[in-house]
Amino acid sequence: MTVHVVQTGEDLWAISNKYNVPIESILNLNGLVSASVVVPGLALYLPDNLPHIRFYRIKAGDQIGNLAFQFHTDPASILAANPGIHPNQLRIGQIIHIPSPLKLQMAALGFIVPSSESANLTALNSVAGQLSYLAIVAYSFTDEGFAYRELEDAALVARSKQLNIKPLLMIRNFTSAGFSPDLAGRILENQQFRRNLVASILNLARQRGYGGVSIDFEFIPPERRRDFISFLTELKRGLGDLVLHVNVHAKTEDIPTNRIIGAYDYAAIGRVADMVAVMTIDYGYPGGPPDPIAPITWLEQVIQYSITQIPPRKLQMAIALYGYDKAVRTNATKAMSVLAAQNRAISTGSPIQIDLFAKSPWYRYWRGVEERIVWFEDIRSLIEKYRLLDIYQLAGTTFWQITLPFPQNWAYIRDHIAIIKT
């Protein structure tokens, strides 16, 4: 892969000539509005014919020759990609780069909230080759535990199947006021209400033609920790061969009394669910101070803890397709797609910085007298996240949500990742 970071005084014509890549390709791959304006710090994803780079952590007994065989390459290529390493002095835990014709394999799940049918189908069609699952965010439940459909989902279910994407019924404890701890707690603590919810989810999943269910119960009261496992166990028993996918808040340690993460017993959830998606997003959250959406150091700490509780083959990390634009004085937050965040930097003439510790891009601009800071993702931060996925051999990732444009992400997956279709 080639990533070019725009320097002061550079333009797209010079970059196009340097890499022998047509300007139109640069515009399309990076979602740029115009060829005439760029800003310093803008990271551009450019096509090339170089081998894929795989990331590998050395284990006891590994030898360069064996790794070359495993990755369908040769020892000389591995040594050339890792200056300074000695083939007879590999260190356990050492991370090396391996040029390989073999792409990273992963299961990718995209969320979508049904809105305009035509716009939704256009978004789905555009990324169909990069998805294994589509979680359709269209369901909630009553105070007595009866699941119901809030939004029309039939067209998305049907089109997913045509595209060889498995549709999942996503249900949330979401009300007009947002995620409701009380709603989740009320249902989970009552055995009859839990049964109502399980039965109604199963009925809807089968009636609507889903291939499984994605559970997104957030801010569950910590005292309902065991009840949540009981609910998931009953649900999985009823689903049988259908997929049970569970989304959980990210954490780096287990604190059973914590009001946000306490209810999620990772180990128990991992035993019941087919897939567990850890929400490695919103480290910098709406209303909070300007911070990265998912700093790489925090994300790796979450993964390191998670794999002690959940088998990596079941574990997904989350990637945000959005950024946050925050007023520095008040922390008032506006969400926008990654592409909109990138292009706002260009339209405001704001140089893009990269936080080397977080491996995340950001920039500052002014709206009148109001100072604003935008944190988002780009091809650089994206590659760092896929690097961790490869190193820790996770099952894959989730994307919130696919109607938010991020052309660099989908191009990178198409070029360097093999999506597992189920």
UniProtKB/TrEMBL annotation:
GO terms for biological process: carbohydrate metabolic process. Gene3D superfamilies: 3.10.50.10, Glycosidases, LysM domain. GO terms for cellular component: endomembrane system. Residues 106-422 form the GH18 domain. It holds the Pfam family LysM. Keywords: Glycosidase, Hydrolase. One of its GO terms (molecular function) is chitin binding. Residues 2-46, 54-98 form the LysM domain. PANTHER family: CHITINASE DOMAIN-CONTAINING PROTEIN 1, CHITINASE DOMAIN-CONTAINING PROTEIN 1 FAMILY MEMBER. This is LysM peptidoglycan-binding domain-containing protein. It comes from Neobacillus rhizophilus.
